[in-house]
User: What shape does this take?
Amino acid sequence: IQKELGREDYSHEITQIRQKVKGLNLPPEVQEKVERELRRLEQMPPLSSEAVISRHYIDWIISLPWHKTSTDRISLSAAERILNKNHAGLKRVKERIIEFLAAKKFSSKLERSPIVCLVGPPGVGKTSLAHSVAESLGREFVRISLGGIRDEAEIRGHRRTYIGALPGKIIQAMRKASTINPVILLDEIDKLSRDIHGDPSAAMLEVLDPEQNSTFVDHFLDTEYDLSKVMFIATANTLDPISEPLRDRMEIIELSGNSLEEKVAIAN
Assistant: This one.
């Protein structure tokens, strides 16, 4: 029948997707969802809008990292060398970062990472510090800019009923990193604002809470995704706009403005 309808290539394509999904070793719940979508796809005309939405969903599931990790190479002397090479001064801040890395290295049971929040005026090197941490750990680095985000769906994703629906920025970052333990920089977390579309800082609570984020549910994926192995680093100019529950989940490291010697070193 498929041959008579001229849909032979289409069914071959679905078979290929099915084989690809089997090789991914997905969690049982996700595997079941994808199987259901594939069965629906087989019964739909290839160019119908419903088929396009289903394909889009399956593509996202396939392209996300579910088990792939990068191996941490935690050498404290190498981390110190990278931090000193990339940043002049900031002695106390570097010491705190090395302490966190040391705790991670010497506690074999410590799966989750501390959520560090770098607070200081613009231009003191908060973003580049996060980059150096990722480099010293040998992990993938992804930056998410949170400045001016007012819609909760930017964090948790849109539901698939909307045309052009996409997952939230967190899941997009995971796809970009292509490993389940990257360093994700949440830039300008103090610039999140709330309006009629919800409160994105409340959605960030689930992302940053180590007790909850192993079962993070994005509205688009509509299934649990494990964020517990991600190392989150947030940056902010001031602490005042950050809500108390969100502040409570983060280790605050304050950076002062650059001294004259540091400015000279940066210029050089």
In short: The mean pLDDT is 83. Residues 15 and 27 are 20 Å apart (CA to CA).
